[in-house]
Amino acid sequence: MVGDYELPEGLLTLDGPVVRPAPGTLPLRGDLAHIALADRYLVAHYVVPQLYRIGAADAALKLTASADARTVATLPAGSSFEVLDHAGAWSWGCVGPDGPTGYVPTAQLAEPGL
Which one Pfam family would you cite for this protein (predicted)? Predict the structure, then answer.
């Protein structure tokens, strides 16, 4: 168990074409995905997320790593955020394995486990 969800068990298989979810929904990119999606989507890498918290102020969850990008959701201060990738000043992650998903400025995240 990781967080509040179970990891996939047993033999993982994919049958036939899979419809790609809309951007900003599931924690899935072309190169990696949340480990909880391993039984539904095939990617090069699956990541067990690092749990962070949104810092003292609400954070805008952005579709891309840009302040000008569309806001997917507003994450309340102190809420949980599962980080799957750090890229410069931005961290890509999700609220949970069912989303929403996007980028948050790394400076707006509290240290892991706090």
Answer: SH3_16
Look at phi and psi of residue 34 and say left if phi exceeds 0, alpha if psi is from -120 to 50, else beta.
beta
Considering the domain boundaries, does residue 8 fall inside one? no
Q: Which 3 state secondary structure label does DSSP give 77? A: coil
Residue 98 falls in which region: left (phi positive, over 0), alpha (psi -120 to 50) or beta: alpha
Q: What DSSP string describes 41-93?
A: ---SEEEPPEEEEE-SS-EEEESSSSTTSPEEEEEPTT-EEEEEEEETTEEEE
Answer whether residue 52 is part of any domain: yes
What's the domain count of the chain?
1
Q: What is the pTM of this model?
A: 0.84
Three-state secondary structure call for residue 52 = strand
Question: Would you state the pLDDT for residue 111?
Answer: 78
CB 32 within 8 A of CB 45: yes
Q: What is the CATH number of the domain that holds 84?
A: 2.30.30.40
pLDDT band at 16 (very low <50, low <70, confident <90, very high): low
